[in-house]
Amino acid sequence: xxxxxxxxxxxxxxxxxxxxxxxxxxxxxxxxxxxxxxxxxxxxxxxxxxxxxxxxxxxxxxxxxxxxxxxxxxxxxxxxxxxxxxxxxxxxxxxxxxxxxxxxxxxxxxxxxxxxxxxxxxxxxxxxxxxxxxxxxxxxxxxxxxxxxxxxxxxxxxxxxxxxxxxxxxxxxxxxxxxxxxxxxxxxxxxxxxxxxxxxxxxxxxxxxxxxxxxxxxxxxxxxxxxxxxxxxxxxxxxxxxxxxxxxxxxxxxxxxxxxxxxxxxxxxxxxxxxxxxxxxxxxxxxxxxxxxxxxxxxxxxxxxxxxxxxxxxxxxxxxxxxxxxxxxxxxxxxxxxxxxxxxxxxxxxxxxxxxxxxxxxxxxxxxxxxxxxxxxxxxxxxxxxxxxxxxxxxxxxxxxxxxxxxxxxxxxxxxxxxxxxxxxxxxxxxxxxxxxxxxxxxx
Length: 444
Fold this sequence. Notes:
- By secondary structure, the chain is of the alpha+beta class.
- Helices cover about 50% and strands about 20% of the residues.
- Strands 11-12-10-9-7-14 form a six-stranded mixed β-sheet, covered by helices on one side. It has a five-stranded antiparallel β-sheet with strand order 2-1-5-4-3, with helices on both faces.
- Helix 8 packs parallel to helix 13, helix 9 runs parallel beside helix 10 and helix 10 packs antiparallel against helix 13.
- The longest helix is centred in the middle third of the chain and has 37 residues, at about 195-235.
- The chain starts with a helix and ends with a strand.
- The mean pLDDT is about 80.
């Protein structure tokens, strides 16, 4: 730019100098004429090169770049170098994009690139097979027009993509797909589709195996338990020297029966995709049952308090929710030492309804909390056996709450106690009219 300004300055200085010489030698009219002709020639030269530049911009090609003269030589040289850098960058970007597309095409999972309006920008061959898309025909089309599943459309509109969803394929027989949306960039999304048919078959076989084995074990365990109880109740049937063995057999048989019952319950929940009954539940009656069971299990060894919002009812399956809430209370009683306290509450928190059980037990270390709802996971196996736990209670609770669009929150501090909360969404709550806002705390 500095050279261009100096060239313009010296050209103007030369034109003025020539005009002054002509004025001195001839007259002022001739000088003005010379100056005007010089300016016109100067502007005409610029207009010519501007026209050449515009012509080149219509078909930009380094091979046809004008050379220019004077100032325009520098201008065209600068454009030429800039265009070369741009061409190299474009080549690198195109190469990177081709590599990405080849890599994405080699993936076993389907990948669909969506823009901010959920329009298809690109997809790989597995996505075409899974979702029935066509890269040539469907680019620019809304994904909701092509994947006509109400569950998928609700998932896409919810903007909550934390967990994937499972769908039965509408194109491929005996195929189950797992779909998940991953937001990235500025209002862009990746839709990932995965064929999980084999995993579903294995899971189905596992559930059937557990259900069948549990069902077959129930009858012999009931018979053995019944005979043991009968023999124990008969005078003289069991010698005092062997009674301790009979008591041990009864205890282990009872534990096996509880384990079988929990396995059957869990299998029934897993194999039943919908809630059997979705009716309004009288929370007062449900909490009364939970409190009576808690008193019987505690046997006056703990201080149990209840605080409930009696204007707030729930909708769902009564038996399932009774099992879930009762399980949280019974866990608190089992793992709280004698003399401890357990506080049960039912109230609103924001727009949610929260049933919480707070105890003063031993508490749980943080590294165990995320795994508590896994089947048979135990923080302390010896303590679980002593309290009669099967390791399936919280897994059953999680399944029941998930079926009711609820979640289980766990807060615990080792050595100070725990709080287990079942959090129900607003859609599951029913506010009763003409009722007191809060029921005072009850102590047992």
